[in-house]
Amino acid sequence: MNSPANTTELPVILTGDRPTGPLHLGHFIGSLRNRVSYQQTARQFVMLADAQALTDNMDDVAKVHRNVIEVALDYLAVGIDPAQSTIFIQSQVPELTELTFYYLNLVTVARLERNPTVKEEIRLRGFERDIPAGFLTYPASQAADITAFKARLVPVGEDQIPMIEQTNEIVRRFNRIAGRPVLVEAEARVPEIGRLPGVDGKAKMSKSLGNTINLGATPDEIRSQVKRVYTDPLHLRVADPGHLEGNVAFLYLDAFDTDKAALEEMKAHYVRGGLADSLVKARLETVLQALLAPIRERRQHYEQDRAQVLQMLREGTEKAREVAARTTDDVRAALGLKYF
Amino acid sequence: MNSPANTTELPVILTGDRPTGPLHLGHFIGSLRNRVSYQQTARQFVMLADAQALTDNMDDVAKVHRNVIEVALDYLAVGIDPAQSTIFIQSQVPELTELTFYYLNLVTVARLERNPTVKEEIRLRGFERDIPAGFLTYPASQAADITAFKARLVPVGEDQIPMIEQTNEIVRRFNRIAGRPVLVEAEARVPEIGRLPGVDGKAKMSKSLGNTINLGATPDEIRSQVKRVYTDPLHLRVADPGHLEGNVAFLYLDAFDTDKAALEEMKAHYVRGGLADSLVKARLETVLQALLAPIRERRQHYEQDRAQVLQMLREGTEKAREVAARTTDDVRAALGLKYF
């Protein structure tokens, strides 16, 4: 209805982030970069999942509020274009809670407890039996987010694939009840480059571990984090042969250095021996400073005009809400919940 | 804002029914009769809980839709007056799902599983591990219903008291997060006359057991159900002494016969011996025909003008939605979910 005719045939993508902290290189490589290219080939909805972030942040609701704007700044800084992608705030589309409510009837407690993603997240957060109900049931909420926009593609990490399966189970159960295909099944799209380790070599970049390089990092911050980058602990003297496995400096260069020929040469030299870690890190710093400088500049530009950013979010949210409202209306009709 | 000044100081009552079948004498004695008197002394919201009914009726959504109107007819028939009480349809107040969504973060799965009402309902329905998530979490939904209207009084059966306790736990946790009393604690109000047994003597009147006398019953239906009323199985000959315990005819007379002196005399005669069951049942039939005739007539009157009933429901729902929207707005603000 409201979408321009030329975009309605493009596949719909839903993606987004829990706004609990600034985005970093891990987000850039794992999702943000892809979103910039998806916006040419798909109708992309980018969700600031503040409501979902609350499921385990009820003790610090101000943090979630604050980070909605910070993450929006990160989006704009990397080149997600509100004219091409619909950036919206989850909590401001209450239709999503309505869909969640009905989907909760389509999934059993046992099925939620078996969901490997939920199981792992519960373990990571140390919830055990004190799981907030909203946390156990968040697959229903995620199904609401995905189906509200009739998304066909959902970019997720490998570990999130069970969530998409659960969404599709709900879709099929709902469509059986409706007797017609009201909702659309989604497909997980796992990015080629997986998770980037932290600068310290730990599996995951995490704000609390202090092992990230944020998109808004200053040149000094970038420099000091690159110095900390984990390399080869066996590479004690420059002349020694070095190892590439688990070597974060080279993992980052693989991800960000566009001069692949020079990189291959550098790797060969490192393995052979005679290449100092400091030179590898110098190259990495050059690459990252070059990558992040324009992102930081754009971020600073938008930071100075928060009113404009809020206006952009308001418009994106209105657009998202129109789409979600149409789906919710279909869902209500299928459940016999139309009276007037 | 929209409430007349003279009603704002009255305590708010929330009450309602799951629209899964026609209402019967059990509803009349346990709640409907009280609602007619509450509407003089309280600001009463009467909810047609269609969304809650779906938690275990996803296989028959049409039944729920149909019964919303049927139950509304029952309300009007017994004298619940839309000018005094706000009668509304739960699903048409989507703010309730939004509140539910946030309250799910304030209650643990373990706490829901310990809720005695939920435990018993799960047992009754034979759900065991295949509990729909929406069923386990319905205390959060009920908390949403109660708090949305800032209800201070909630008329419930004895078995529902744990639900009100759970609501109040959520209220307290929420208010702690908010740092101010956004939500209001509620008090269970248990009616003096508890549950009425079925005509067959079974503990509960239930449509599926066929042991009810519906409010819209025809004179013939009343007559044939009274014939089935369970009395004293030891009272074989008229001359035998009769027993009152578990004697449904006398339980019903206790509930509905307004001539208490005559009833006490009849009881004494029955216990002494010499009073035939048929005479007791004749009295019961007279009482019930007199009680139900005006209810049936009013019901038939409204049945002929369903458009008017729908209009009444539409207006009540709009009014309820305004109140719920104000609470939801407060809840969003307390959670930092206001951006624009």
From TrEMBL, chains A, B:
InterPro entries from the UniProt entry: aa-tRNA-synth_I_CS, aa-tRNA-synth_Ic, Rossmann-like_a/b/a_fold, Trp-tRNA-ligase, Trp-tRNA_synthetase
Entry's EC annotation: 6.1.1.2
Superkingdom, taxonomy of origin: Bacteria
Keyword annotations: Aminoacyl-tRNA synthetase, ATP-binding, Ligase, Nucleotide-binding, Protein biosynthesis
Keyword Transport: no
GO molecular function, one term: tryptophan-tRNA ligase activity
UniProt xrefs under PROSITE patterns: AA_TRNA_LIGASE_I
NCBIfam families on file: trpS
PANTHER family, A to Z: TRYPTOPHAN--TRNA LIGASE, MITOCHONDRIAL
Annotated family: Belongs to the class-I aminoacyl-tRNA synthetase family.
Name of the molecule in the record: Tryptophan--tRNA ligase
Source organism of this protein record: Robbsia betulipollinis
Organism phylogeny: Bacteria, Pseudomonadati, Pseudomonadota, Betaproteobacteria, Burkholderiales
Gene coding for it: trpS
